[in-house]
Amino acid sequence: MSEQIVISTGALFGLLAVIFGAFGAHALKQTLSENQLKSFDVGVRYQMYHAIVLLILGYSSIDTAHVVYWCFTLGIILFSFSIYVLVLFDAKGRKLKFLGPVTPIGGLLLVLGWLLICFQF
């Protein structure tokens, strides 16, 4: 995994987290319930935390960097993005039950990435 790809991915996820955070705080404030806004915010925060770690990971030389990269990248997509979709569809009165199990799978991938970092050191 090249350093540029890891850093670019982290930067893209960070950029999207800022955009989604602003969108949630301003555009969705009148549309979503308080609980829906809290869920949306969890997705944004976890996305930003892991984007920052991806940026740091791009400059590191740990042996498991490529596996951590994939755990965090897929984890962000499955965890945060499934929350965004679930919340937005729920706000329109449509439940996407098939996405319910996707969120915890993404969370497990994020945990696995952190475990790999822990075991590295």
From TrEMBL:
Topology of the protein relative to the lipid bilayer: Multi-pass membrane protein
GO cellular component: plasma membrane
Keyword Protein transport appears in the UniProt entry: no
Keywords associated with the record: Membrane, Transmembrane, Transmembrane helix
Domain of life: Bacteria
Record flagged with keyword Transmembrane helix: yes
Pfam family, one: DUF423
Chain segments annotated as transmembrane: 6-28, 40-61, 67-89, 96-117
Compartment(s): Membrane
Family of the protein in this entry: Belongs to the UPF0382 family.
Protein's recorded name: DUF423 domain-containing protein
